[in-house]
Amino acid sequence: MKTHLTAVLAGGLLYAPFAIAAENATALTADRISVFQAPLVCPAAPQIGCGSASKPILLDLEKQPGVFQAWLNRAGTIIAVVWKPESDTETRSKVATGLKEDRATELQGDSRDKAVQNFLSGKGWYHGADVDRLSEEELTLSLRGWFTGYKQSLH
């Protein structure tokens, strides 16, 4: 029973970031999402995004007028911005310009469509402070690599 409860609680924590988006799923359409190619891959663990680099960007984005939510994909290569329904073109343009300062470029055409479809799947995206989980994973991967190297040096 205790194991089952732990699994249920852990599962709930893993999917909690999508609860907000799920509540607004009926209102969330592709035209309310912009996606940006971003250089936020973790140098120490290149298969995941860098939590410490992306967290301030995502949290700052969510303070911007017109922005409802900001997300990072697991790989750290794409930021998704979900706009408030009332956001206008000028507001969106200002946010996109700000992201360019962080070396992020807005995706267009097929690349955009694929990224939006991936975002809407709800799998492998981190919201705001939830990117701390990527930092935890980075630490685990780094320690695992260090420990493996250390063990090999003993032989």
Detailed description of the structure:
With 155 residues, this protein is an alpha+beta fold. It has a single domain (2-146), classed as 2-Layer Sandwich (Alpha-Beta Plaits), CATH 3.30.70.100. It has helices spanning 2-15, 17-23, 51-61, 89-101, 109-121, 132-154; strands spanning 33-37, 67-73, 78-83, 105-106, 125-127. Strands 4-1-3-2-5 form a five-stranded antiparallel β-sheet, with helices on both faces. The longest helix has 23 residues, at 132-154. The chain is globular and about 65 Å long. The N and C termini lie far apart (43 Å).
How is the secondary structure organized here?
Elements: H1 2-15, H2 17-23, E1 33-37, H3 51-61, E2 67-73, E3 78-83, H4 89-101, E4 105-106, H5 109-121, E5 125-127, H6 132-154
Antiparallel strand pairs: 1-3, 1-4, 2-3, 2-5
